[in-house]
Amino acid sequence: MPRSRTPRPALRALAGALPRRRRLPLRGSTVLITGGASGIGRLMALGAARRGAARVVVWDLDLSAAEAVAAEARALGAEAVAERVDVTDAAAVEAAAARAGAVDVAVNNAGVVTGARLEDATEEGIRRTFDVNALAPYWLTRAVLPGMKARDRGAVVVIASAAGLVGVARQTDYSATKHAAVGFAESLSAELRKDGSAVTALAVCPFYIDTGMFDGVRSRIPWLLPVLRQEEVAEQVLDAVEAGRTRLPLPRAVGLLAPLRALPTPVFDRAMDLMGVNDTMDGFTGRRPAVDVPAPDPRVFAPDGAAR
Ligand SMILES: NC(=O)c1ccc[n+]([C@@H]2O[C@H](COP(=O)([O-])OP(=O)(O)OC[C@H]3O[C@@H](n4cnc5c(N)ncnc54)[C@H](O)[C@@H]3O)[C@@H](O)[C@H]2O)c1
User: Fold this and answer.
1) How many angstroms separate the CA atoms of 134 and 155, rounded?
2) Which of 79, 243, 251, 271 has its CA 20 to 30 A from that of 225?
3) pLDDT for 171-204, tens place per residue?
4) How far is the CA of 108 from the centre of ligand 1 (A)?
5) pLDDT per residue as tens digits for the range 7-38
6) pTM, to two decimals
7) Residues labelled as active-site residues
8) CB of residue 254 inside a 6 A radius of ligand 1
9) In CATH, what number does 23-253+261-279 get?
């Protein structure tokens, strides 16, 4: 019997039918990052400078922290500016984007989380989560996309979450906004492909990262789903931008969610429960505000608690 052979021409035809990846070297590029004052935003700003970006634009609510990041980026050789921009303010975003000039890579990174169960969530918290995580990417992208399309070069990055691919207990607001972010990036990517544009849209879907935003969370299966190191996430996002990718699940196991969705829903739900996905938030505290706790006055507090 003749041995079955790999249908090479068929595979070649299939590969040829796939959209070609549009590589985008960061060297010489202008990179704008929202929420760039801390966490992975700060590290992506510095990583872009290290990779030779010509200009790094850091937006955040915290101007002094954003300025410190810009100074670090300048020390790495990039031109860098910081601005206080509230990404939920569409008019402010449009004006700041005009001041930023031509942007090659726009990273929608600013994000917030409440960690509240639905019954405990406040209307203000829910609205804010949607404003920052789901709606802000529209305002920035609409401001920078025409320029990118005119130059036929650019990448819109949306830092979504693994919670944009699966619902998680205590994340009815957060997970919903990250599903919106994934849908936004995927639909934008489809529009750009349809237009034959070289501009790309990348949805980043990480599991928890050790930035402090999700302090207190834990993974039941850290060998498969570890809490990610922020330095690694920042580098992987920049790699994905340069490679022209459109989806980045982190770690790789997060990419298994899509095929697992083929299971009957009760089986999928049970699998998530058994993997501890819905217990991850049990110990969530989030980033607690840094408070200066004065050292106890030794004249007042003796080790045994008695006043001296
Ligand atoms: N930390 C995680 O476990 C994790 C996991 C998956 C996805 N993400 C996503 O990654 C992104 C970065 O998170 P991080 O962990 O670095 O958190 P972070 O809290 O360190 O950084 C978020 C930044 O966004 C800024 N910001 C918040 N609201 C803003 C607004 N209205 N306008 C401008 N800036 C604003 C904050 O000031 C902060 O500097 C977020 O979108 C987050 O949802 C985080």
Assistant:
1) 18
2) 243
3) 999 999 999 999 999 999 999 999 999 999 999 9
4) 9
5) 677 767 776 776 677 899 999 999 999 999 99
6) 0.91
7) 174
8) no
9) 3.40.50.720
